[in-house]
Predict the 3D structure of the following.
Amino acid sequence: MIFASTAHNPERSQLLSAKSSSRLVCNRNNGGSTQGHWSEAHMFSTSSSRGTSAYLESLTRAGQRIKAAARWVPFALVAALVAASSNATFGDAPAARRFSQPGLQRIGDYLRHEIAIGKIPGAILLIQQHGKPVYFEKFGLRDVATKVPMTDDTIFRFYSMSKPITSVAALMLVDDGKLSLDDPLSKYIPAFADVKVGVETPDATGKPVFTLEPLKRPITVLDLMRQTSGITYGFYGDGPVQKLYRQADLYGGDFDNAEFATRLANLPLAEQPGTTWTYSHSVDVLGRVIEVVSGQSLFQFEKERLLDPLGMSHTAFFVADEAKRPLVAQFLPDDLIDPPIAGIRDPMVHRRWESGGAGMVGTTGDYARFVQMLLNAGTLDGRRYLKPETVALMTSDQIGPGSGIASANVYFLAVHAGFGLGVAVLTSPQPKRPWPPGIYGWDGVAGAFFFVDPNDDLFALCMMQSPSHRGRIETELAPLVFDAMVR
């Protein structure tokens, strides 16, 4: 992936099944060597009242229409997937750094081939430059059981692509002057005032002994956004705190954000705040902070201030309408997320917990409007959501040299990537890769990913549900996007 290493780790099956093998990572402390570690998954105008389908129709009308010539790869067992691939639409980007049609065709051929050989059921890909679609295509099937093709209104599980949305919601409160990045977390959730840090130290015989240490400084809102709070996840790693997470009944019952934050506060931190980048439930806690500050539930605040104004009418924390169940994209039968990651299960099940870190679902059109707003430095369709300087802060590295932030033993980012506020950021050129520094984005364990290239005023958004192949596809697809550009 753009933002992660792809080292192999034979230990990943200890916590996740091979069917949902997680994104592989690189330990920054080892000088860039590919010591095997693994994790969840991560890499990257119309009226806001219009629906997703209408929005994508407007995208496909922009520019000159050129139908993609389908090059089918035979595969008897999943021929229906290939047959269901939709027509592509190409639009002409402005002359500077424009895309070539043969290059875009190669991108489509790549995804069609992945469907033909049975790796993924289907996908939707949008590449947008200068606010206009350069490439938009629906591939394969939404559900192999029903043979229904991908459509504009297909609903995808975002998983960790929820994190940028929650981070933007919190930053809107920062812009409002109601929240400060320097605020201690305990100001909003007092239970975190007395949280301890779990450490292992050797005794006189060299045997590790688990002890609890007091905080050297409070957890801050900034720590939650840049993943330096010391909170962790229980689905990766073998440290003593991760083991405690797995032993605790974190996801039991029908709890809300307040209860979940309390459960986390009752567990020790894995690291001292502000010292280590540790991928975690931090953004779930950030969602609770938003609730305390706004006086609304997380979804109510996001719906009122962000989702509805942006026209993201299909984005929520579960699919409330039973009639929409057929719209949810399904995994291949042998490529399931089992056991569930971060407590997220069936997107059709109503639950009180609104997981700001991994719980959202929505459509390609919805997320495209969100990403375009970021690329526009906080505006879309004449409405401002974030100040330009806030977007610049969000999309700049907050854990690089001089920050005092180290990497944990299990590190989710490659040596060429840092982390901003809810997104990863490419900080230096990667050998033999065409993407330039300044790119930012994120992805989710189910397979969806996006990346933004401010240098070329473009973003790419790929929606699919393929846990086992997401990292490889993201790694292979991104170079095709940049190689398709005529310099």
User: Anything to note?
Assistant: The chain has a mean pLDDT of 83.
